[in-house]
Model the fold of this input.
Amino acid sequence: QVQLVESGGGLVQAGGSLRLSCAASGRTISFYVMGWFRQAPGKERELVAAITSGGSTNYADSVKGRFTISRDNAKNTVYLQMNSLKSEDTAVYYCAAGLGGSYYFWGQGTQVTVSS
Done:
């Protein structure tokens, strides 16, 4: 089992930045694909960014050039640096760990609110 705990969410003005962290425990996440998802009220959950065990990344088109996902396997932690935030980035952000295209372990989420 992998337990994931997100932190770093909050209220920020449009154009500002936040850095989300996802701390893992239970086992190493070094060989998992790690993803950040978000879900806004009334909308489906969407994949924002993902990073493989080898460090390859992919991003949703809506966040390319603004968000950066990274991982520190020594700290068993994944990060999401969010810059140039927009009101449409407001959502609950979730961290997840998975393999083979499926995500098996999820955090409880952290709220990000961007005021315009």
Remarks:
- The chain has a mean pLDDT of 97.
- The longest strand covers residues 91-99.
- Residues 37 and 46 are 5 Å apart (CA to CA).
